[in-house]
Amino acid sequence: MTAWVNRVGPTQPAAQATLILKRASASRPSGEWNDDDFDVLANGDVVGRIMKAATVPVGMSWMWTLGFGHHADRTPTHGYAATREAAMAAFAKSWRRE
Predict the structure, then answer these.
(1) Whole-number pLDDT of residue 10
(2) Closest CA to 61 of 79, 41, 46
(3) pLDDT at residue 56 above 70?
(4) Are 47 and 59 spatial neighbours (Cβ–Cβ below 8 Å)?
(5) Which pLDDT score, from 0 to 100, does residue 64 have?
(6) pLDDT higher than 70, residue 8
(7) CA distance 63 to 37
(8) 41: which DSSP letter?
(9) How many domains does the structure of the chain reveal?
(10) Could you tell me if 74 and 95 are in contact, meaning their C-beta atoms sit under 8 angstroms apart?
(11) How far is CA 56 from CA 5, 35, 48, 62, in A?
(12) Which residue, 7, 20, 53, 78, could crosslink 63 as a Cys pair with Cβ 3.0–4.6 Å?
């Protein structure tokens, strides 16, 4: 697991919660998940996904998406990035918009 936003207290808004990147195979035990498929958790809830996708724009092999029910007024709700780290940064930027 990888945490990439500073941890805050339980009284902080969800958008300020620590985001945790957890391999899908550890987060979702049913099914077959590859090593490049991750769930994004905030306060213990799955709020999105970051994965290496097969059908993507050239040079942008990583896809990120906010989970359904976690869009609120956030935009964009998904996107593509060249690296996993760039996808994590884009996810966090969108997540913090509330």
Answers:
(1) 45
(2) 79
(3) yes
(4) no
(5) 95
(6) no
(7) 10
(8) E
(9) 1
(10) yes
(11) 26, 18, 18, 8
(12) 53
